Amino acid sequence: MWFEWLFKYPRQAFAQGELAFAGDFGMLWWGAAAVLLAVGIVFGRRVAGFSKLRRVTVHLLQIAAIAILLTLIAEPVLEVTRLAPGANTVAVLVDSSQSMALPAGLNDESRMDVAKRLINNEIEAASRASKVALFHFDNDLEKADAVADLQADGDRSRLLEALTDLATHFDQGALAAVIATTDGAHNGGSLGWDTLAETGIPVHSVGIGQEDLAGDVELAELVLPSRASPNTQIAARLVIRHSASRDTGEEIRLRVLDGESVLAAESITLDASSTTITTDIVFPGGGPGLKEITVALEVPSDDPLPGNNRQSALLEVDRNRYRVLYLEGEPRWEFKFIRRAAAEDDDIELATWLRTTPRKSYRQGTSDPDELADGFPKTLEALYGYDMVIIGSLPATSLDDEQHDWLARFVAERGGGLLAIAGRHALGSGGWDVKPLAEALPVTTTRPDASPPYARGNYAAHPTDAGLRSVLTDIGGGGSRERNWETLPMLADYQPLGTPKAGATVILEALGGVERRGADIVVRGSAAKPLFVTQPYGYGRTAVLATASTWRWRMRTPPDDTRHSLFWRHLIRHFAGAAQPRRRLSLAADGDSLDVRVALKNARFEPLTETAVSVHVTPPVGESYDVVLPRIAGRSAFGETIPAAEPGIYRVEVAGLTGPAAMSEGSRADALAALARVGETNREQFGATLNEPLLRRVAEATGGSYWRPDDLSGLADALAFSSAGIHERHQLPLWNAPFLFLLLLLLKCTEWSLRRYWGGI
Amino acid sequence: MNTLPSRNDVSADPAVRVPALLFAIGSAILALPLAAQTTRTDFADDDAWLRRDEFVPTRIQYDSVGGQRQAYYFYDGRWWQRWETDFPQAEQNFAKRLNELTSVVVSPVPLERRLTAPDLGDSPLIFMSDVGYMELSRPEIEGLRTYLANGGFLWVDDFWGDAEWSSLERAMTEVLPGKRWVTLPIEHPIFHTVFDIEEMPQIPARDYARWGTTEPSVEHRRPTGSMETPSIRAYTDDDGRLMVIATHNTDIADGWERESYGEWYFENFSTKSYRVGINVIVYALSH
After folding, report:
1. Which residue from A minimizes the CA distance to B101?
2. Over the stretch A18-35, which tens digit does the pLDDT of each residue have?
């Protein structure tokens, strides 16, 4: 308000307009300038007794006052373009999803009631210079006939899509702006910000609702793996949001359900000062099959939205095999106990090659007599058949140059996992620092002459902050994660790793320690050293473990202690599970459609593009059918959006490949399948609070403004100076703007006060 | 094997009971320093593991029932307890050969531990010898049970005949109730991890090597029954991995200990002992 009083016009006018002068700089102006200058000189003599600094100050004030007077005489104007009256249309877009039926927080009105009142009383008035077109959106954008007919009954809010659709396809005249009345509870599709901004139509978003829905507790997110192995423990990640009005200390019970069966239950405690809780709950996956896992919150007292207290996700329990190759240069206990840990996991196929004597080796877990017969896979394709490679105390000279090159490519191109374990012949001590793999490893490996070699010592494994957030340190044990590590037996060796590379993550550190030097045991202090470091490299991941005595975690704990086993099983699953599959089928439900993507590679992990892919779709009701997936332009993948009008579970599997390049790939591709659920979820109960950040971002991205429902007074001016639509050019006079006169008065008062103070009057 | 050539079970023969009693008293006095040594090596809390190489031969100390020639015997100028038969020379020689012949990094200095030692888990393979009169206490039984459940590997050697087998069997039944011994066929991987062994060798104590491979029954606990056939008998875990092996009717460790006895002995017995020993160690380190 004060801005418009001072400068005569709203901010939008100054933001859009340009300053200019309507008068000409002819004789009159120059004459006035001369007179004012003369007057200034005459009066300037009266300050002759001042010091130099004071004289300059007074003259500057006088010159500034003269400049303002000359400016006024030149008739300053603001040149703006304003919407041509009657030539434009303002679209009013009303959110008609179910969340708009919730209380707005103003009186007893619903959000929809507030939207209708604002449209009738203020928005239409603010848009009087233009025609008004009324639309509403939920799952789709639709024209509305009358405000009174609007109902909050849509099961989805696709705000961004609706705005983009409206701005792009509006055909009822020149669209000057969009006024969106909504709670911003967007819950459908991806947000195409660039497309929306490129339409050039300013969106003025009016946020209706409350940012805190009193008393509400919501299971905001449920994250489950889509597949799991039979009879394994599965972790579900939950994000729970609750109103700040909930009491601190209030307990909420969580249950994990498979149908009617309770798989796990836990309690969480609310804290009013932290309204978002992220937690994991572990439950048994059970036997093979498709399961719909539901996580439910049991809220003990009144909850205004009980519908957002549970979520479900599909889980397919099936075998998932990880093929791991372990090359070890000497029989040692670490080898034995890694094999035992892997053997406890039915999903891990561990093939090992062990050098037993300088001329003999011993193979275990191989599937045929030729596998690893030469101490290494015979072909690149055979190496790529593994998901992970573990290298123990093996001198680099055990492999030839081509095999070293294959190992580096195994990580970078095939996307496999690679772990190097400490040992007398490992890392720099084994000459690996000058091999291609050194670049892929997460640390700068060094020769023993540059650092102490692998040696006995007394160390404790300690997770870093990053490590505590990683599944790699989730080893069970019954206590907190830190405690589970603190109580592990000491490690008995360490190999200096060199410097972790940029982008590497230190998961574990080695703490403290003692080391034998001759006959003495020397305490080395408590400086932390990197113990387990990982990094992504190319499409794969690498890791280095600076010890070979984790077996002590098995041998020096009670028999029922599973921490050693879980550490290795999680480690192998993490690195092998992240390996790139040769065939990938991704399936995402989006409203009433399914987005299907298939990517294929040959045995050398080169993209297969000269082929065609068809998928077999089994809908929840009706007969299954085949769909041919075209290649996605510019990408080595195939994809299609398939209509899925019927709510329920859809199964999509790659039915077959055609084309010469795919002839040898057909049989294994048949096993590629995925599931997705379409519809049947009441999304409007979730995230139903006012999403002001989203609405502000919409306004900023399009050149509009965000408005609160209790203050739309500036909306009319904002619309008048809208950047879109049909405009007229105007010159708005500024000579009588109060700001200029106030400034002139301020200058003269300042001059007078100074001269009075200095004794010049 | 280094027990003295004499009758075995003195308590079973009344004619020698009194002299034997007097001899036993004298022996006990002489054995006092030995008992003190046993106490000293019963580590309760030490950091010996810090000194270890990858594989550290570890001999298990145990108590035996009976008196002279049962729980202990006099040989080569000193008194020996049963548990220390062949120790430490056998382990020292074996460690040297392991270092020469395999990629195993082995400590030249063996350890001795009781089954109750808190650091027993630092030796995932332990060795027991001459167990014919062995008696395990309750804490020892529980210690061994825990050790085996964690993945530890026990090798029992140098016990002959039925009575000594029964002694081990009784003890192990208490350690792992319900387990059944299986005799490993020659096709089992343990006979082929490094060397292909086509026949289980019978290694006698040095003093009998000239007369054959089977030790005389008088040297062993009665009733001895058959001592002709050497074998490896084993306990396996639920996944079929070996937990305990017993090299019965043979004295593998004596083949290591006495390798310097002569070229003939080395060729005929030590080489066979080392082949079995290396296969067992590499098997234990890889399964």
Report:
1. A357
2. 888 887 777 777 888 888
B44/A contact by beta carbon, under 8 A: no
Element (H, E) at B274: helix B271-286
Chain A: closest CA distance from residue B96 (Å): 14
Q: Which of B103, B124, B193 sits opposite A330 (nearest CB)?
A: B103
User: Do the strands B231-236 and B242-248 form a parallel or antiparallel pair, or are they unpaired?
Assistant: antiparallel
Assembly ipTM: 0.84
pLDDT score for A760: 64
- What is the average per-residue pLDDT within A45-62? 79
CATH number of A85-213+686-722: 3.40.50.410
User: Smallest CA–CA separation between B53 and chain A, in Å?
Assistant: 8
For A482-538, the three-class secondary structure string (H helix, E strand, C coil) is HHHHHCCCCEEEECCCCCECCCCEEEEEEECCEEEECCEEEECCCCCEEEEEEEEEC
* Cβ count near B48 (within 10 Å): 14
A554 contacts in chain B (CB < 8 Å) = 150-151
CB B46: neighbour CB atoms within 10 A? 11
Q: Which residue of B has its CA nearest to A355?
A: B103
**Radius of gyration in angstroms for the set of CA atoms belonging to chain B, rounded to a whole number:** 18
- Per-residue confidence at A742, pLDDT binned at 50, 70, 90? very high
CB atoms under 10 Å from CB of B234, counted, come to: 18
Please confirm whether the linkage preceding B88 is cis (ω < 30° from 0).
yes
The residue-averaged pLDDT of A200-228 equals: 88
DSSP string, A97-120: BGGGGSB-SSTT-BHHHHHHHHII
Judged by a CB distance cut-off of 8 A, whether residue A559 touches chain B is yes
Are A164 and A195 in contact by the 8 Å Cβ rule? The answer is yes
Residue B15 has pLDDT above 60, yes or no: no
Q: Please tell me the CATH superfamily of domain A217-304, with its number.
A: Immunoglobulins (2.60.40.10)
Q: Which residue of A lies nearest to B286 if distances are taken between CA atoms?
A: A336
Q: Chain B window 112-131: which residues touch A at a Cβ cutoff of 8 Å?
A: 119, 121-122, 124
CATH 3.40.50.11240 for domain A322-454+494-509+530-577: no
- What is the average pLDDT score of chain A? 87
Q: Flag whether residue A337 sits within 8 Å of chain B, measured between CB atoms.
A: yes
In this prediction, residues A79-95 reach a mean pLDDT of 89
Task: Report the CATH number of the B10-286 domain.
Answer: 3.40.50.12140
Q: How many CB pairs under 8 A join A and B?
A: 95
pLDDT at position B1 is 39
Span A143-166, mean pLDDT?
A: 89
- Residue B50 Cα distances to A567, B45, B55, B129, angstroms: 24, 13, 13, 26
Q: Is-same-fold flag (A85-213+686-722; A217-304)?
A: no
Q: Supply A758's token pair.
A: 């200095």
A514 to chain B, minimum CA–CA distance in Å? 9
> Collapsing DSSP states into helix, strand and coil, what is residue B155?
strand
Distance from CA of B55 to the nearest CA of A (A): 7
Say which residue, A403 or A188, is predicted with more confidence.
Answer: A403
Contacts of A274 (CB under 8 A, 6+ apart): none
What is the chain B residue with the closest CA to A423? Answer: B54
